[in-house]
Amino acid sequence: MSFEPKIVGILCNWCSYAGADLAGISRKKFAPNVRVVRVMCSGRVEPAFVLKALQSGADGVLVLGCHPGDCHYAEGNYKAARRMPLLKKMLAQMGVEDERVRLEWVSASEGDRFASIVNEMTEKIRQLGPFNHNGGGANG
Amino acid sequence: MTSPTMPPEAEANPGAGGERVGVYVCHCGTNIAGTVDVAAVRDWAAGRLKDRGVVIARDYRFMCSSLGQELIEKDIQELGLTRVVVAACSPHLHENTFRTACARAGLNPYLCELASIREQVSWVHTDKEAATAKAKAVLSGAVERVIQNEPLEPLHVPINEATLVVGGGIAGIQAALEIADAGFPVYLVEREPSVGGHMAQFDKTFPTLDCAACILTPKMTTVGQHPHIKLMSYSQVEEVSGYVGNFRAKIRRNARYVDETKCTGCRECAKVCPIELDSEFEEGLAGRKAIYIPFPQAVPNKATVDKKGYPPCRVACPAGVNAQGYVALISQGKFKEALEVVRRTMPFAGAVGRVCNHPCEVDCERATVDESMSIRSLKRFVADYELKIGREKVKPVELTKTDRVAVVGSGPAGLACAYDLVRKGYPVTVFEAAPMAGGLLRYGIPEYRLPKKVLDSEISYIKELGVDIKTSTPAKDIGQLFDKGYRAIFLGTGAGLSQKMGIPGEEIPGVIYALDFLKYANSGVKVNLGSRVAVVGGGNAAIDAARVAWRLGAKEVTIIYRRSRAEMPAVAEEVEEAEHEGVKMHFLAAPVRVIARDGRLIGVECIRMELGEPDASGRRRPTPVKGSEFVVDVDSLVIAVGQSVDKAGLAKELTYTGWGTLAVDPVTLETNISGVFAGGDAVAGPADVIAAIAAGKEAAESIDRYLSGTDLRQGRPEQVTRVKEVSKAGVKSKARATMPVMDLSRRTAFFAEVELGYDEKTAIEEAKRCLSCAVCSECLECVKVCEAGAIDHDMKDEVVEVDVGSIIVATGFQQFDPSAIYQYGYGRYPNVMTGLQFERASNASGPTGGELLLADGRKPEGVAIFHCVGSRDENYHKYCSRVCCMYSLKYSHLLREKLPDAQVYQLYIDMRCAGSGYEEFYERLQEEGVNFVRGRAGEITDIAESPDEEGKLIVLVEDTLIRRKRRLPVDMVILSCALEPAADAGQVARTFSISRKADGFFLEKHPKLDPVATMTDGVFVVGCCQSPKDIPDTVAQASAAAARALAMISKGKVEIEAATSLINEELCSGCRVCNALCPFSAIIFDEEKKVSRVNEAVCKGCGVCVAACPSGAITGRHFTAEQIMAEIEGVLA
Q: Mutate which of B132, B244, B1105, B1131 to test chain A, going by most A C-beta atoms within 10 A?
């Protein structure tokens, strides 16, 4: 059986979750590999959530927020934009491939963009193969 | 309550904290069930999630129906459920529905979770197996999360009874009136000077053909007068803070430069305004003035001055002379008034109009079209005009001040200073050592450039105002002046010492310094220079000396300059004229020795120079080329290499800079001696006249402050806003007026002026080239005619704050600009117009009084109307603008009515006439004899292929009903343009925290069930800013939003989200990281306890602080780390 990646998508309520809903309303078709968890703002995303997902069996984590300047809470997405690189730096030190965790901006009107990000991410993770958290990244 | 009955298979599992979870899977008809195996999901939940506390799992066709909801309510009561999960559609749609159902059954609403398996599962996947698996995962996440959920109680806060309505079109007007009529206060903010919006421009309204103004203007008037409506026109909302029920909006009330309480709407001001531009209201079919009331029925009926800042010319002028102001008045033939504008700043229109180095012209925007305006010569023109017609003696200024001021030196700096001070009411005495006043203007600039009678007239003007000028009266001792009772002193003593070159032989007779030479020449003293004269230097003094020498009879005049032409500081026109007169130029050469024989000058030895690296002045530094010496034979040598300040002429206590000029404070121009100010060449070294005038003015300001005891520095240097963008659309290239000059042969005979000045016609034509960069030119003609005294050109923007409970955004649309579609020729063919232009052309109160005419005044014999211009077009807007079919039909009707003999064509793709009475209107038009052609117009051309087409616009279209290409010769084409989001819709969306759809219009909370609300509670969107719509729909939406606002007001309080942050004081370390992070300033620091605390009413629950707290002291209620982690674990299980 081919490898089907499990990806956790942590989406902000106002832009990205609405964008994901719009993809549905527009009946876009995309890969079924992302399971969505809703938060109010991408600024709420603790690095621990991403670690938790990887630890619990996710092969990749997608964090989506509003475009810069569009945050419902004015600037929460900027906080996310600063936290994620720090987390990724740490993940790199732990041997986790960079592409397994991705931060993107998706607005409430970008159903297409949501669908294509999901497809891209799924393909990417499919190429990388399963994440083996016990063995440490791709070497595991 | 019925006692819970437990099905045998439903045993609560202690592993899930003893919670009893009910799972409900919705089919949503086939929406979910078509792709997800609902029964499998249900069974999986009942079986696999049993040990996670699921005691019951059911499926139902429509969970959101009342029967579906009752099912849940019954289970809560009968099975004793403590948690509910509904796997159905998006929480954005039905979270509230199911929360409310749970609440009805006695379960806290926050203990209900939605698993979205429609928008994010069944609608986006096709593989049934994969979709079912994903649905299970999402459901599992929701179950894990709901177990962790905690009951929360929503917070109730009182609601502010006022409402903010943004946008004063028909949508905003309607909403405002509904609320105000109910007795509650409304702030109505409109960006334009008048309310009315697009509807005020319309001629008739479809399908009833009511006159738009007739049904709109009564409403506009009511809005303007309603006791509960505070109308703020010409204003914009800049910032919104707060939350539903308690918003605070910051509103910028743009300065309209007219006091609304005084203006009577008489429009006299507009009559005298010299600035005319396209009227926005008339869609460019007519003009308006810079001070204007956009249309006769405007509300408020108050004038507005359209002022965009300072024009570039005025910013560039060191003295800030209002060039646009006098140029505008010249264009109207108001020469006297134009001179008045110059004199508001400085008294030397004639002198400066001749000799200025005109930085204004360098920055002139007109130069980006063709050539810069001839600003300097226009200034001269108005001065000459006054000399020609004669000037009446000026009334002396009433001297209201008692402190006397002494001005030392009567050059441009001193006189400008005296001029400003006397006009402020100070008694001023000017001390001048020379026999006549004027300084370098008199003794430095030759007659042929600045005739003495011009200068005399301007100096006498200053005297008439009341300035006492004492000539032949040197004032050297500052102390003595103070002793005589002068309270402040301005030193404008200039730089009158000629700089020496420091070369051997400089002392030989025959060597003369330019300043002395020019002074003699200007005083009528004869100087014999011989026939060969060399002048050293590249400044204005050098050029002047050379040209004077030529006039005095020298046969051969040579200028020796050590740099090249590009670096010459002299005015370029002067250099050209000098060459024209035969003056030779030796560039890149410098004298090294004066050669004499028998004590008489016979030549000057020079060396060639080359240009090296740029020096401090930014000009490339010349360096000598070894061995390149050469000799120029001359009879005399004029040295014009610079001037310096004569320290001997001034008080010893004064301090100097390293350059030998007076040291002053750069802002206040005060010297080291208190009360003594200085400016002009004495401070700056030899510089331009206009710079000296600027310094004199600045010193006058300082002296006024000094004497009145106010702060010398506050608000200085003055900050002015330069115009940002200047519209150059439609400006046709037109060359700058050339200055007529005196014939060469007549120049030597006498010192008559070379430049002859413009005649009136040339001046007016030249003035008309001005682009009016700043729109209002501040000529102040309007102030003169306003009997009510309502105009105040110094008005400033005002920012007011209002507190409101809800906000209705009704900011409307803008018309698509059809010039983007090149093949339709809009902007190229004068008879191709937009829909809005047709509305104005057809309107009885429009520019043609409702007569439909072509650009050349003929009546059209054929008219084509294009539908879908910019709409339903992949290149522009994919959407249908909804109203164009109907308004196009309306145009056809008006055309048939007004031009019964004309052929009218409608080029449509589909006719969309859905609405009350719309289809009937379509049928009526078919009977009225309109030609309907099904097909999108391809192109408009004016190239005729047959005699019928001569002089016509030929419309090329494929008639898709008869499957033939057609050429329709017409005279007029109306483009029914799309409605698109306003250009700044993005900014508006951010201000009010609303989202936009892919097409750019504002996003409503739900397209069907909540079309006027937005994702931000308390903010509503109505009218065309939400999507294109007709007037009836707009009005209905406006009333709907008003009803929503009123519903909140009548409730008196509003429920706000309980999912806010909470700080555990035990854990808080008081680091205050969260304080700065919170975008709403909801976190306050308790100084006493040294802990942070959240103001729940202000907190919006974003959770930024929760993620940031290093102590983990903050709980994001309903989005706790435990809840989110549980969900993550659940979706991966």
A: B1131
User: Which residue out of B984, B1057, B1124 would a mutagenesis test of the A interface target, given it has the greatest number of A Cβ atoms within 10 Å?
Assistant: B1124
CB B593 within 8 A of CB B507: no
In angstroms, the Cα distances linking B668 to B4, B418, B433, B695 are: 89, 16, 26, 10
Q: Concatenated DSSP letters for B962-999?
A: TTEEEEEEESEEEEEEPEEE-TTHHHHHHHTT--B-TT
B1103–A44: do the CB atoms touch at under 8 Å?
A: yes
- Look up the CATH number of domain A7-128: 3.40.50
B1056: confidence class by pLDDT, cuts 50, 70, 90: confident
Which residue, among A79, A84, A110, would best test binding to B if mutated, counting the most B CBs under 10 Å from its CB? Answer: A79
Q: Do B123 and A24 touch (CB under 8 A)?
A: yes
3 state SS of B750: coil
What is the CB neighbour count within 10 angstroms for residue B913? 18
CA B119 to each of CA A27, B54, B1016: distance values in angstroms, whole numbers, following the listed order: 8, 24, 21
Cα B803 to Cα B161: distance, rounded to the nearest angstrom: 9
- Tokens for B314, please give them: 């005025």
Beta bridge partners of B1063: B1114
Alpha helices, DSSP H only, in B1070-1120? Answer: 1073-1077, 1104-1108
Overall pTM surpassing 0.90 (yes/no): no
Question: Residue B889's closest CA among B247, B226, B205, B411?
Answer: B205
Kindly provide the ipTM of the predicted complex, given to two decimals: 0.96
Query: Which residues of chain A neighbour B91 with C-beta distances below 8 Å?
Result: 38
The domain spans of chain A are 7-128
Q: In angstroms, rounded to a whole number, what is the distance separating the alpha carbons of residues B172 and B195?
A: 9
B119–A43: do the CB atoms touch at under 8 Å?
no
Size of interface A-B (CB pairs under 8 A): 148
Residues B671-714: tens digit of each pLDDT:
999 999 999 999 998 888 999 999 999 999 999 999 999 999 99
Which residues in chain A have Cβ-Cβ distances shorter than 8 Å to B990?
A: 69-70
Residue type at B1108 in one-letter notation: A
How many C-beta atoms surround the C-beta of residue A86 within 10 A? 10
Q: How far apart are CA B686 and CA B128, in angstroms?
A: 89
Q: Model confidence over B330-373: pLDDT tens digits?
A: 999 999 999 999 999 999 999 999 999 899 999 999 999 999 99
